Amino acid sequence: MADPAQSTRRLQPIRLRAHLAGGAVGRADNGEARNDGTEVPPKQSFTDQEKDEARCLMAALRNFSALRGTMPLQYVMAYLQIVSDEGRSVTEYAAKLGVAQSVMSRHILDIGPRNRHASGAGFNLVEQGVNPVDPGLKEIKLTQKGRGLYNAIRDSMHNWRRSKR
Known about the structure:
By secondary structure, the protein is mostly helical.
């Protein structure tokens, strides 16, 4: 029997794709008539508030670029999932992001103290520790650097919003 949480998780990206493909983002301007009498499709644009929200998000994400200019989105998502629910297992984070446990393990290694190839340092944003309730489970926690990154992200967003007042 399928896990209801998994079916919901699988639907979320589909809803997003449908939302993006349907042009439901932003607002439509009035269409114009062409010389041949057919109508030009309406232009899609974003409100000033939506543009500001995108700029705020970009300001926050620049903190990841400071760590590595080409920080993979998967690492960002893994990190933010851990920030939002610290102390869980690799299996739990994998389920929440809808990825295989092996994929999540690789992401955690790469954003951890060493990269998955053991050939160099990772980003040192998270670390694995023993779960105090079940010593057989490892739990993922933020490092001091990981907490500092979150504070920088939060400050970037706060400063952006404050500068717009």
